[in-house]
Design brief:
It is built from 9 helices and no strands. It has 195 residues and is an all-alpha fold. The chain has one domain. The chain is globular, with a radius of gyration of 16 Å. 42% of the residues are buried.
Length: 195
């Protein structure tokens, strides 16, 4: 049964990320490069931390999502150089610096549990520039990826081989933050539509 759940969660990761990536390529979505840079580090740490703490096949959806996260980050870099980086504000630089400083304790400890806790906190900080950007320009994001992430992380929790802080914290926090993002996008777009 857990293998089936892992497969469904992996398919959701592929569907949500391919849809998002296509919209990035078409210019319909403008991902915030700072956020996606941090997310690529966080997903990689969570993937390897989960493996180290016995998550088993339950880390497969995270690994699949990590591949897409890296690609989306690489494509988001273009917005720093082609004049579309208007959504990047000075405060975003502070969030990036703060998130990067959070890597220091992770590099020192090398403990999977401490690493995942630190990475999840960094992940929360990384969400802030994207939330701010979406508030100002709601049409630069679409809710599909984030709603797929909610479903994927719920399924991931059911597919784990071991349950501990290192294997569950990231998914629990991602369920919450992605739910906020979906409602945030929907409410902002509704408000923009009424104007």
């Amino acid at each position: 049964m857990k293998i089936f759940i892992v497969l469904v969660a992996s398919v959701l990761a592929v569907i949500g990320n391919i849809s998002y990536f296509k919209d990035v390529l078409k210019g319909k979505i403008i991902p915030h490069p700072y956020t996606w840079f941090i997310w690529s580090i966080v997903s990689m740490t969570t993937f390897f931390g989960g493996l180290a703490k016995g998550a088993g096949l339950g880390v497969l959806p995270t690994g699949i999502a990590e591949v897409f996260t890296l690609f989306i980050f690489l494509f988001s870099i273009q917005y720093l150089f082609n004049g579309k980086a208007g959504h990047i504000r000075r405060i975003d630089n502070y969030f990036l610096a703060f998130a990067l400083l959070g890597l220091i304790p992770w590099a020192i400890t090398h403990d999977p549990t401490i690493s995942v806790v630190i990475m999840v906190l960094i992940d929360l900080i990384a969400f802030i520039p994207t939330l701010r950007k979406t508030w100002v320009k709601p049409n630069t994001e679409k809710p599909m990826l984030y709603s797929m992430n909610v479903s994927r992380h719920i399924l991931t929790l059911f597919s784990l081989s071991a349950y501990n802080v290192a294997t569950t914290l990231h998914s629990i926090v991602m369920i919450c933050t992605n739910t906020v993002m979906v409602s945030f996008i929907a409410r902002r777009k509704a408000r923009e539509g009424r104007k």
